[in-house]
């Protein structure tokens, strides 16, 4: 297998953080990365469109030569290939709660952050759309408050003592905001989680900013 990525881009980054978390826990994952330079428009080259007609990253190339796109699908596939230690937790309810957090982090933070960045100072050169940025900004405070409440018992990660997919997704989103120098006004516990998460060697091995 091979993983097509671009550093800093949030969807590839959340997959890369999940893989790094597994590796840090001792799981051997043989998955070389191939860079597709989004800043140079390489995602629109015919060879990448053959991997993913939507021209986005990440893409996982399977050993039979077929391709899997969508970061969530790739994370779940790798989670099933390498189930231990789980990045979703144990038991139906814990896994459901952790998926709930992951969906909040993806749809409520990563999506809006990506839209704010691309609607204000797009690294892909997209035109500014102030109303899209403003609408996305309005979504963030409520979701961040809910995520902040999830850390109220002092747990170091959203799933408890170990990182889960939600940690990886949220950090990928926050990195993209840092990269674009967008202040998200993080609530206190999320801000502390952010600092602690980033200090870890495993995070430093993936994050650029
Ligand atoms: N829903 C997709 C979104 C993929 C996506 O939009 N990826 C961005 C990078 S974070 C991309 O490749 N953008 C390039 C472009 O739109 O030209 C996923 O979860 O993988």
Any descriptors?
Glutaredoxin, 209 residues, Glutathione S-transferase Yfyf (Class Pi), Chain A, domain 2, single chain, alpha+beta, 54% helix
Describe it.
The protein has 209 residues and is an alpha+beta fold. The chain is built from eight helices and four strands, in the order E-H-E-H-E-E-H-H-H-H-H-H. The chain has a four-stranded mixed sheet, with helices on one face. Helix 4 runs antiparallel to helix 5 and helix 4 (92-121) runs parallel beside helix 6 (165-179). Glutathione is lined by residues 9-11, 38, 43, 55-58, 70-72, 124.
**N-end to C-end Cα span:** 27 Å
Strand tally is 4
Residue-averaged pLDDT: 98
Total individual domains: 2
As a percent range, the share of helical residues equals 40-55%
- What small molecules does the structure contain? glutathione
What characteristic shape results from the CA principal axes? globular
CATH class of the largest domain: Mainly Alpha
Q: Tell me the structural class.
A: alpha+beta
Biggest sheet character: 4 strands, mixed
Please list the strands of the largest sheet in the order they lie side by side.
2-1-3-4
- Write the H/E string, N to C: EHEHEEHHHHHH
Runs with pLDDT <50, length 5+? Answer: none
**Gyration radius, in Å:** 17 Å
The share of residues in extended strands comes to: 5-15%
CATH fold assignment of the largest domain: Glutathione S-transferase Yfyf (Class Pi), Chain A, domain 2
Q: What is the tally of helical segments?
A: 8
CATH architecture of the largest domain: Up-down Bundle
């Amino acid at each position: 297998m091979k993983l097509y990525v671009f550093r800093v881009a949030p969807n590839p980054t959340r997959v890369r953080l999940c893989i790094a978390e597994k590796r840090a826990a001792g799981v051997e994952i043989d998955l070389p990365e191939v860079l597709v330079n989004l800043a140079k428009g390489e995602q629109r080259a015919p060879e990448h469109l053959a991997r993913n007609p939507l021209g986005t990253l990440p893409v996982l190339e399977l050993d039979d030569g077929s391709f899997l796109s969508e970061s969530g699908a790739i994370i779940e596939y790798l989670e099933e290939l390498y189930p231990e230690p789980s990045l979703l937790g144990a038991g139906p309810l814990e896994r459901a709660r952790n998926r709930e957090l992951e969906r909040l982090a993806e749809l409520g933070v990563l999506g809006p952050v990506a839209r704010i960045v691309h609607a204000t100072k797009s690294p892909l050169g997209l035109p500014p759309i102030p109303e899209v940025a403003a609408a996305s900004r309005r979504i963030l405070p409520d979701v961040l408050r809910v995520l902040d409440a999830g850390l109220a018992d002092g747990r170091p990660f959203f799933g408890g003592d170990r990182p889960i997919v939600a940690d990886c997704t949220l950090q990928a989103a926050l990195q993209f905001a840092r990269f674009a120098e967008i202040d998200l006004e993080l609530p206190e516990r999320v801000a502390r989680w952010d600092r602690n998460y980033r200090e870890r060697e495993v995070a430093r091995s993936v994050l650029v900013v």
